[in-house]
């Protein structure tokens, strides 16, 4: 097994980043750090990055941050009708909340010894919660990788992560990302959607390489 500590650290960080982004309206301080991170992704999306940089220059940082906050609310928390739903069950099945998908997600959490804090108030298949679960598993793998005699435990966590990705994330993250890109022309949100897909794809590659 040739897992990389560096890759696991990056994986853990990015799952935390995206989980925080989708959990609640980001603060200006968080958005400033996010802008720096997104700006470092220019190798894969240069046209979008060019427009992204131009928008900041035209608006000024403070005005641009305010516009991102307004767009965030419009996309994910608009009253009456949410443009981009953040629950897996809406994309996989009948289009309703709290379906079989939600129950299956909870079973994955329980197997890993986790219980969602907002149990019974927010469905377990919210994107932020699923990504937080992936962060937890990645962090656990990182810890086990640095322990002697923990190879079997590490393999078990890798199986759990692989199963959750195949049964859940790969089933709806691409559609969620496409929906974000369809509903917002703002480059920042389009880049976020691309980055979200990329972290899942990279995770799959790492698992296939090392499992």
Automatic annotation (TrEMBL):
InterPro entries (UniProt xref): DMSO/NO3_reduct_chaperone (IPR020945), TorD-like_sf (IPR036411), TorD/DmsD_chaperones (IPR050289)
Q: Does the keyword Chaperone apply?
A: yes
Domain of life here? Answer: Bacteria
Keywords from the UniProt entry: Chaperone
For this entry, the protein name equals: Chaperone protein TorD
State the organism named in the record: Desulfosporosinus metallidurans
């Amino acid at each position: 097994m040739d897992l990389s500590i560096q890759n696991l650290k990056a994986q853990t960080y990015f799952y935390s980043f995206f989980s925080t982004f989708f959990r609640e309206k980001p603060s200006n301080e968080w958005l400033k750090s996010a802008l720096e991170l997104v700006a470092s992704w220019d190798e894969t999306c240069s046209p979008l990055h060019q427009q992204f940089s131009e928008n900041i220059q035209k608006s000024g940082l403070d005005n641009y941050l305010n516009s991102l906050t307004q767009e965030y609310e419009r996309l994910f928390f608009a009253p009456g009708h949410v443009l981009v739903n953040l629950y897996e069950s809406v994309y996989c099945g009948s289009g309703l909340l709290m379906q079989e998908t939600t129950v299956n997600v909870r079973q994955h959490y329980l197997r890993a010894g986790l219980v969602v804090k907002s149990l019974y108030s927010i469905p377990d298949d919210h994107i932020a919660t699923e990504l937080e679960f992936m962060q937890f598993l990645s962090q656990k793998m990182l810890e086990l990788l640095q322990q002697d005699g923990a190879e079997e435990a590490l393999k078990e966590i890798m199986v759990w992560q692989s199963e959750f990705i195949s049964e859940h994330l790969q089933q709806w993250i691409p559609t969620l990302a496409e929906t974000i890109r369809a509903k917002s022309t703002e480059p920042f949100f389009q880049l976020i959607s691309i980055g979200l897909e990329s972290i899942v794809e990279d995770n799959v590659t790492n698992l296939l390489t090392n499992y």
